[in-house]
Amino acid sequence: MGKRIRILLVDAGTSNLEILSRIFSSSYNVLTAVNGAEALSRAVKEQPDLILLDILLPDSSGFEVLRRLKEMPETTKIPVILTASLSSDEDEERGLLMGAVDYFTKPFRKLVVRARVMLQIENIKQRRKLERMSTIDALTEIPNRRGFDIRLNVEWNHAIREKLPLSMLMMDLDNFKIYNDTYGHPQGDTLLKAVAEVFHFAAKRAEDIAARLGGEEFAVLLPNTGLDGALLSAERIRAKVERMVVPTVDGKPTRVTISIGVAVVKPKPGDDMAELITRADECLYAAKEAGRNRVHHTG
């Protein structure tokens, strides 16, 4: 997993938060919220791995918070365990039907709570392992098209909600077929892995993502980045690839260049997410037509 699991505890009672914090703080990173508004805000910003959500909150019901969590792309996959002061078959059924993964009542029994949370965390780890296998390109070990599309959907909705720009770099290796024909497909794979590493390190922030869309086509998604920042990143990538030397098995140096299309949008509700990809692809085509090894953009 790489980093410690984060659990968001949502309860209006200070004593309940203290009890749960003592149970989990030694093994996990614990976040807390005392009302629904704070819970939703922290869930979006902090992206916890698991949420323990009380049904009774001062500003809204836990069911309403659960509904909104499941509606937002950023939080829809976060598992939620509902907690309640009184046992109610109706509340438990309602919560599970709304997407909660478990339901337990207070007072909290330490061993039971810990065991049930650990079960959910094991489920999270297994699910993420399977998701990673289906969203990572086997050759380059960066996200594939499916992984890119998932992140684009999340960042698109975030950009709409926060009124932020979103930039995309569409990149294609120049004359890759000739390279493959000259040096062979194994050497072509070596080249793809080398340039993928350049793209990966160019996506410096946690929210940035570099992906292989297919063949020799790659993309970098830059959330909260305007045209100037996107062009700067694109030119750095182009120049670094141009300087890069990829040796063959017998040590012969080979070089390659890339063309990059840059598109920037500040999406609004109702805008088509596919338009960003289309515009970036059109700019990439323009860069190829203009002579390759260059950056072409549209604002």
Please explain how this structure is put together:
The protein has 299 residues and is of the alpha/beta class. The chain folds into 2 domains: 6-133, Rossmann fold (3-Layer(aba) Sandwich), CATH 3.40.50.2300; 145-298, Alpha-Beta Plaits (2-Layer Sandwich). 48% of the residues lie in helices and 20% in strands. It is built from 10 helices and 12 strands. It has helices at residues 14-24, 36-46, 62-71, 89-97, 110-135, 145-162, 176-183, 185-202, 227-243, 274-289, and strands at 6-10, 29-33, 50-54, 80-84, 102-105, 166-173, 209-214, 217-223, 246-247, 253-254, 258-265, 295-298. A 5-stranded parallel sheet has the order 2-1-3-4-5, sandwiched between helices. Strands 7-8-6-11-12 form a 5-stranded mixed sheet, with helices on both faces. The longest helix has 26 residues, at 110-135. The protein is elongated and about 70 Å long. It starts with 5 loop residues before the first strand and ends with a strand. The model has no long low-confidence stretch (mean pLDDT 93).
Question: What is this structure's SSE topology?
Answer:
Elements: E1 6-10, H1 14-24, E2 29-33, H2 36-46, E3 50-54, H3 62-71, E4 80-84, H4 89-97, E5 102-105, H5 110-135, H6 145-162, E6 166-173, H7 176-183, H8 185-202, E7 209-214, E8 217-223, H9 227-243, E9 246-247, E10 253-254, E11 258-265, H10 274-289, E12 295-298
Parallel strand pairs: 1-2, 1-3, 3-4, 4-5, 11-12
Antiparallel strand pairs: 6-8, 6-11, 7-8, 9-10
